[in-house]
Amino acid sequence: MSTIQHRWHVPDIECGACADAIKRSLSELSGVKLISVQVEAKTVEVEYDPQLIKPDAIFDRIEEAGFSPEA
């Protein structure tokens, strides 16, 4: 199984609770393998299986969690 990493800038990440909310939301998605949220850098990096999920679905889930990722 081959995985891909993708990083989004999410300027409205403000604190650890924001990071936890994003991680919780993304961890529910099939195909997501690893989630790293950097509060200081305001980034979300996700390692995922492209056979199971597309980056647009991850982007949409970040938005559904109440944040504004930048493509």
Describe the structure.
- The protein is α+β, with helices and mostly antiparallel strands and 71 residues long.
- The chain has one domain: Alpha-Beta Plaits, CATH 3.30.70.
- Helices cover 31% and strands 27% of the residues.
- The chain has a three-stranded antiparallel sheet, covered by helices on one side.
- The radius of gyration is 11 Å and the shape is globular.
- The mean pLDDT is 97.
Question: What secondary-structure arrangement, pairings included, does this model have?
Answer:
Blueprint: E1 4-9, H1 16-27, E2 32-38, E3 43-48, H2 55-64
Antiparallel strand pairs: 1-3, 2-3
Short synopsis of the structure:
By secondary structure, this protein is an alpha+beta fold. Helix content is 31%, strand content 27%.
Number of domains: 1
Choose one word for the global shape.
globular
Helix tally equals 2
Q: Which spans of ≥5 residues are poorly predicted at pLDDT below 50? A: none
Number of strands: 3
Instruction: Indicate the percent of residues in helices.
Output: 25-40%
Tell me the Rg in angstroms.
Answer: 11 Å
List keywords for this structure.
three-stranded antiparallel beta sheet; alpha+beta; 31% helix; 2 helices; 71 residues
